[in-house]
Amino acid sequence: MEQSSDTQRDLAVCGHALAAGEKTRRAADGAHDPTPTPYFVLEDLLGTLDLTSDDHLLDVGCGAGRVLAYFVGAGLPGRVTGVELDERLAAEAAAWSVRYEQVRVVCASALDLPLAPYTHVYLFNPFDTPVLRAFLDKLEREAAGPVTLTHMSDNGEWPAYLGRVGWSMLREGTFDLPGEQGDCPQHFSVRRFVP
Q: In the chain, count of helices (H) and strands (E)?
């Protein structure tokens, strides 16, 4: 059986596939099922951010760590932290990533994590709209400087950004993801917040 390109890239960095199909055990807390972002999407969204050695990316709802694997495999500069509410998924991401000094995994709610250290944030539909609003409120209060937020979602969370001061849209569009043909495309936006 031929392995997908995503699986091959997972194996090269993580030593095992970061498969989809997991179900969250934290739905009561507003968490959504984890979905690994395809590498071609990450190349388009994160590979074009012009990260520097001073930057620190936060992957909210990192699951088993596909964004972390992309960061390492692409040789991006700076640091990356994954925050994951589900203890089992956080342990999986921490286990494979421990050998990479620029990667850190935190098992916690993104609403409890101090956000000042981060210059970039990635969200792939990690939680429902009330939690997103609370996260954006927290980010606005704690940002130590400009923050670029990349958000992928097909669930219509864009109203959570309406009326917020200090935000600008850098780019937006859609992706048709493998296995979702005929389904609504995944919308993405890249926004900049300047406190």
A: 5, 7
